[in-house]
Amino acid sequence: MRACGHRTVTSASPxxxxxxxxxxxVGSVVRIQLLGGISVETDGRPATGAAAQPRRLALxxxxxxxxxxxxRRERLVALFWPDADEERGRAALKQALYALRRDxxxxxxxxxxxxxQLDPESAACDVVEFRAAxxxxxxxxxxxLYGGPLLDGFRLPNAEAFDxxxxxxxxxxxxxxxETLDRLAAETTRRGDVVAAVRWWRALAAHDPLSxxxxxxxxxxxxxxxxxxxxxxxxxxxxxxxxxELDLPPDEGVAALEARLRSTATATHxxxxxxxxxxxxxxxxxxxHEAATDVQPSTTAIAASIAxxxxxxxxxxxxxxxxxxxxxxxxxxxxxxxDAATPVLAVGRITAYRADSATTELAAPLADMLATxxxxxxxxxxxxxxxxxxxxxxxxGGSTPDxxxxxxRRAGAxxxxxxxxxxxxxxxxLDLRRVDLATGRIVAAGTVVGRDPFALVDSGTAKxxxxxxxxxxxxxxxxVTTRSVVAYRLYAEGIRRAFHDGDWPGAQRLFDAAAREDSxxxxxxxxxxxxxxxxxxxRAARFDRAIQLADHTTERERLVVRANWATYASSPMMRxxxxxxxxxxxxxxxxxxxxxxxxxxxxxxxxxxxxLERAVVMDSAHVRDVGRPECYACQATLALSDTYxxxxxxxxxxxxxxxxxxxxxxSARAWRHLSGVLEMAGRGDRALDAWRTASTLDPTNAAEExxxxxxxxxxxxxxxxxxxxxxxxxxxxxxxxxxxxxxxxGLSERQQxxxxxxxxxxxxxxxxxxxxxxxxxxxxxxxxAQMLMDAGQYRASAALYDSIGRGQRPFGAVSNxxxxxxxxxAHAADALALAGDTAAVARLVDSVAxxxxxxxxxxxxxxxxxxxxxxxxxxxxDEGAVREFRAAMRSPNLGYAxxxxxxxxxxxxxxxxxxxxxxxxxxFHAPVENSNTYLSLTEVHALLSRAWAAAGNADSAxxxxxxxxxxxxxxxxxxxxxxxxxxxxxxxx
Length: 989
Hints:
Blueprint: E1 2-4, E2 7-9, H1 14-22, E3 30-33, E4 39-42, E5 45-46, H2 54-66, E6 71-72, H3 73-80, H4 86-104, E7 110-111, E8 115-118, E9 123-125, H5 126-135, H6 139-145, H7 160-190, H8 194-207, H9 212-224, H10 228-246, H11 252-274, H12 276-282, H13 288-292, H14 299-309, H15 316-338, E10 344-352, H16 357-374, E11 381-382, H17 385-394, H18 401-410, E12 415-424, E13 427-436, E14 442-450, H19 453-466, H20 485-499, H21 504-517, H22 522-530, H23 536-549, H24 555-569, H25 573-584, H26 589-601, H27 605-619, H28 632-646, H29 650-663, H30 668-680, H31 684-697, H32 702-715, H33 719-732, H34 735-751, H35 755-772, H36 779-790, H37 794-805, H38 814-834, H39 838-853, H40 858-874, H41 878-888, H42 897-909, H43 913-920, H44 937-950, H45 954-967, H46 973-988
Helix pairs in contact: 3-4, 5-6, 6-7, 7-8, 8-9, 8-15, 9-10, 9-11, 10-11, 10-15, 14-15, 15-27, 16-19, 16-20, 20-21, 21-22, 22-23, 24-25, 24-26, 25-26, 26-27, 26-28, 27-28, 28-29, 29-30, 30-31, 32-33, 32-34, 33-34, 34-35, 35-36, 36-37, 37-38, 38-39, 38-40, 39-40, 40-41, 40-42, 41-42, 42-43, ...
């Protein structure tokens, strides 16, 4: 035994020893997070049982927030059981405390008799630590601990007293946090620490976006750090918020500071440029620890605070778009503040001094090659050629020196590199100069001579980076591009044709030609793959080749290629690549786009939104580029809309697409997507109008027309019209059209309960798919596997799902195989659960978890919870099943519909019918063929009828029952009988 403060600790007490060695809370058994949400962990794992139930979670939060002072039992009874008499209230509290103590690991967590509190040696809470840090004067630590509003997003129904307590506590903590940020900002400003000052003023402005005091402080700090442009941008952000939120004009103090900064911007920038070396040594660079603990404001929390003030004024899209600007500014600051002295270069025009054809043909690719090679230099940031072409095109084209300088400034560059190419005997001479974009003066100049463009670029790069006191990149530029002058010239012209002229078909021909000239030229191969039309398998083969060559490119190009590949391959590495792109190249759009998509894939929706908004802003000028496959703004807008759909926020999803339409009213793709959103929102007539607009703009896509109209009438339950739409492709369509028509016919028959007919249709579909090989492996059998389940052939269904899950996929990475494998095994588990084979279901749990971990999709990573839920439900543990099914849900409406269904059944067995209703209703806000392929909408109506009846709402129950009666008027008698019997047994056992 040995002493630890006032305690004696035995060697057999690891938690206590860890606390002794590391401080009071290190090694605590229970960890309670209340700021920014709510979570409870025991021994590093999420708590279960009572500690996961809303009312008892709220009770635990109230005790935790009381700190050392504790909270009286009478106060807790008043908060949570205000309508109960004294005896029943005290009994309810006693029972809740017993359950909490039991599931949190013992009586030592919540201590006291009449006054209750957390035991600080057994439990840690961020609210308590936040207040303790303030009391100790550790302001930065306190700011780090504040993760957002108290219990953000937590709701306890029918608990007005608790709601009032929560609002008071939340408001008090938020006010304390704001005061802490204000003190930190003021102190760092006073001592001249411009990096830290910007950090804390930005955090304060994010916490209270409407505060003129915070806006002025941030603008002054940014100006002091030499970033006047960011200060001016924040003035516009603040004015926009005031106008839309409060109908107020810009604040006088903010406007006056904006005018003053604007009038002195040029002089300030010049001074900052001349004093770069001094500033680099005078500015304190944050330590590694400080960088890791940098306070980044929560976009969701800011949006929520604005919405609480006046929610009817500001749309979610506008709030998040404005706040994305703040968040993006914080992202850029992390790089710019730490590297305040790092120049940002743009490569302008290389002019052929003598206008002979040979020299002229070399000049344009030389500029692109130079930008590529300079970007390899550690410590330099270089605007890519594609980005420069993009900005030039936004400004109306042109390649004059003035236009190039303006484009460089807009792209974020501080200097422009220009050059002149001249024949020199049997060699080439390249005169280079660095131009300061703020003053227009030449900072440095030099001359190099070489026998070919590659030698010129290597020598020119060494000359330029030497003027910054840096070492040239390792290895020649040819090692990361090509050794063929012809191939590079074709490639560079392809980049110009694509990003400057918008001629994507012409660019594809050039990239193909470059790849033929040099089959090892990675970027030419990649662009040729990206633009390849036709079957996915052909594109996949080209992508595989590009990935094999990716090591022979620059770092940025390698990251872009791999991030793009990872989206197709469902690889968890996508987030790693996106994070590296953001960190190294914050001025380029790809990092923001791929990070947004990766976060959406991982179900981190609130975090995805600002990244996607930033990508839309950076590339919005190109939504009009018809035929452009890499319209980043288009991809980001679609991903943004899909993110809102996953959150069941259909209005926000619609607004995102309508913004795209405002930018490009002639985009058939945007109108089609809008039609889909309107369908999910139940606005069928408006959806048809949007679809007709899309068809007028692009009348060539007959297959999509058939799919959309079939889904529209199927959602409307107009089955005769569904068959009429499918008649032509079934009778005279090509193989692809017939496959699509058979798919919709099978879904229609299935929704009408005509399972035998649907099974015959599914087998026709599978046979045709196998014969023509026009679909991905296994997709032709998917409908048959589901129809076998509906027909009661559970083991045959499970076997077919297992077989589909073993099929190889295009982009044959393990992660893509894993995505398919985990998803299909979950369906097999459903079939086996219906067969009553719990042993087989139990064997699948670990397999689904194993494969799910290797996919980037949050759906796949969660799916093992669904299988565990099936197992627990079969064993009669409905409380456990509910927890597992909730853990499996990635979205209320766009997840796996059978999870919603199984969860609703468990809730009905627990006599919680209204919760079952809330779980089922969002399923109508999804495409008919989404995960509703695995559960017909008629089945949803049938279970909703039962849930409403159990809740005592006879009218709603009758309305849903009428739908079932109408839809199953001609259903297979055996199917409806078995389905009704199975549903009744499952809901009541």
